[in-house]
Amino acid sequence: MSQNTILITGASGQLGTVLTEKLQEKHGVVNVIATDLRDNPNFVGTFEKLDATDFDAIKEIVLKYKVTQIYHLAAILSANGEKYPLSTWDINMKTFFNILEVSRLHNVEKVFFPSSIAVFGDNIDRIDTAQSSNLTPSTVYGISKVAGENWSKYYFEKYGLDVRSIRYPGVIGYQSLPGGGTTDYAVEIFHKAIKNENYECFLSNSTTLPMIYMEDVIRATIDLMDAPKKAITIRTSYNLAGFSFNPAQLTKAIQKVYPDFQVTYNPDFRQKIADSWPMSIDDSDARKDWNWEPKYTIDSMTIDMIENLKIKFS
Ligand code: AKB
């Protein structure tokens, strides 16, 4: 069993819930410290309530458990961020600075920072968006992710802190619900379909976005963190792709299982955000450096989502 002690912030969120379980399997339940802003009374393992804007509170947990790795997932996402731009900037940056500084000062060896396709905006090729494209985001969330990517590189170069990062596409999973993102429709739609209800989509039918299935994104995250240090050539954040689709294509995939399922379209403020993002991603650096390869397609993801949601809600 490895000697790592892992701290996860945002452990009760969409990704945190699943990543925590995977890391418990890999490193042993006692070696994973899950934290979140709110208590989690049903949690199996070690859970600490933590406000990651509080430097001393993070430091206390890092020292108490002799933490060696941190996965910093706590953040306000793209759509919610636009409702409260200044506090989103404050929260996203303060929490990350706290993680970087506590790590630098108290012997944390590795940090994972989730970036996002939200770092892209104007002046990009929206098809197969390249790793080195312009980073002129349209949201405060995206701005905070671009800044976070650059701070990751700075802490690596200046202090040798091994910060690693992926630009996450929209994540789809049956285990948990997303909160406040622009890609959330791709999870919500399944919850309606399995209840034999129709869905009103907040993006237009032709809005193509990069997405990824939960199993793939968790594997990518852990593979990146496990990769030999010398393999990591990108110290800002890696482009990562699963598959791309639009709501009409996802509806068709769901209709193969639920032929009567119908979607109506009522685009809201999130449409503008989605229109500024890539349609597909060139992830050749991740493939080359740490052998990234997605397993799921839109059809295999759809079947797996429906099967698992049916079990979960039966
Ligand atoms: C969001 O929609 O804000 C997130 C993301 C793509 O980072 N899912």
Taking the sheet with the most strands, its summary is: 7 strands, parallel
Shape: globular
Number of helices: 11
Query: Which small-molecule species are bound to the chains here?
Result: 2-amino-3-ketobutyric acid
Distance between the termini: 36 Å
Number of strands: 12
Structural class: alpha/beta
Q: How confident is the prediction overall: mean pLDDT?
A: 97
Helical content stands at 40-55%
Strand portion, in percent?
15-25%
Secondary-structure element order, N to C: EHEEHEHHEHEEHEEHEEHEHHH
Strand arrangement across the biggest beta sheet: 3-2-1-4-5-6-10
**What is the C-alpha radius of gyration, as a whole number of Å?**
19 Å
The parts where pLDDT drops under 50 for at least 5 residues are none
Family: Belongs to the NAD(P)-dependent epimerase/dehydratase family.
Domain NAD-dependent epimerase/dehydratase: 6-232
Protein name: NAD-dependent epimerase/dehydratase family protein
Features:
314 residues, 3-stranded mixed β-sheet, 11 helices
Written account of the structure:
With 314 residues, this protein is α/β, with parallel strands linked by helices. It is 42% helix and 16% strand. The protein has eleven helices and twelve strands. The strands form three sheets. A seven-stranded parallel sheet has the order 3-2-1-4-5-6-10, with helices on both faces. Strand 1, helix 1 (14-27) and strand 2 form a beta-alpha-beta unit. Helix 4 runs parallel beside helix 5 (140-159) and helix 6 (185-193) runs parallel beside helix 8. The longest helix has 21 residues, at 85-105. The chain is globular, with a radius of gyration of 19 Å. Bound molecules: 2-amino-3-ketobutyric acid. The site of 2-amino-3-ketobutyric acid has 11 residues, from loops. 2-amino-3-ketobutyric acid binds next to loops.
